[in-house]
Every structure is written in structure tokens, then in C-alpha cells.
Amino acid sequence: MVSCKFLVRFMKAQDIIRSIEAEYLKSDLPIIYVGDTVTVGVKIREGEKFRVQPYEGVVIARRNGGINETITVRRVFQGIGVERIFLLHSPRIDKIKIVRRGRVRRAKLYYLRGRVGKATRIKQRFDRPL
After folding, report:
1. Which positions of the chain have pLDDT values less than 50?
2. Backbone dihedral region of 37: left (phi > 0), alpha (psi from -120 to 50 degrees) or beta?
3. Is 69 part of any domain?
4. Contacts (Cβ under 8 Å, ≥6 apart) of 36
5. DSSP string covering 79-103, please?
């Protein structure tokens, strides 16, 4: 049995953590769904300067919520599938632009890893705005 004092102390700690995390949450993120084709602008440091490198691909997974929210973006580069996981609220993410909406029936699109060529196409969805 958990004591009431422990629960009160634990809830206060959770509230403190949420308030600290709220400062770092980005408010300008678009609504991203699995199956969307997105362009993620990633800040890359070269010497003393920063530049933004675009990474375009299909969102095959979303994970968690709050400050730890991530998306997995897959693209095919020179015939090889490349996946990158992006922390949405990271300062390294400059911007995320939705190129097209995809119509899928799964929460995770890991089956795309085993597909090649035209079999990896996802139908476009027109009922959600870009």
C-alpha cells in the first residue's frame, strides 16, 4: 500500500518537472501524422558557423509526447534506406515542413523497410491541410 504523503510528494515532483519542461517545448510545430512526407531542417555546425541541412522522407513512426516526442523519418538514398530519429523539441531542429499527407492504416510503418521501389509508395491524403 502506498502512503498518501508519498503520493502528494510524487505529484509535486511531477508538476515541477512539467513546469521545467514547458519552457523548452516548441509551439510552432506543425501537426505531423505517420505517413506524411516531411522536410526537416537540421542545424549542422561547421567550424564556428551553423547551416541548415534539409532531410526529406516519410514519417514511419511517432513516439511519446511532451518534451521527449520523436519522429522516425525514412528516405532512400542511393538505393539504401536511411532512417533518422528526430527529437521534435530539440534546438537542433530548425523547422519542419510538411510536403504531402499520406493515407495509411497503421500507427507504425516498419513494413516499408522490406519494400523496394514502387512498393514503398503511400497514397496521398487530401482531407488534412498541409
Report:
1. none
2. beta
3. yes
4. 58, 59, 98, 99, 100, 101, 102
5. TEEEEEEEETT-TTEEEEEEEE-B-
At residue 69, the 3 state secondary structure works out as: coil
> Grid coordinates in use for 14?
511531477
Residue 77, domain CATH: 2.30.30.790
> Cell digits for 63?
513516439
- DSSP category for residue 57: E
Q: Cα separation of 45 and 73, whole Å?
A: 21
- Indicate whether 55 belongs to any domain: yes
Chain-centroid distance, C-alpha 77 = 20
End-to-end Cα separation, the chain, in angstroms: 50
pTM above 0.70, yes or no: yes
Which element (helix H / strand E) includes 72?
strand 70-77
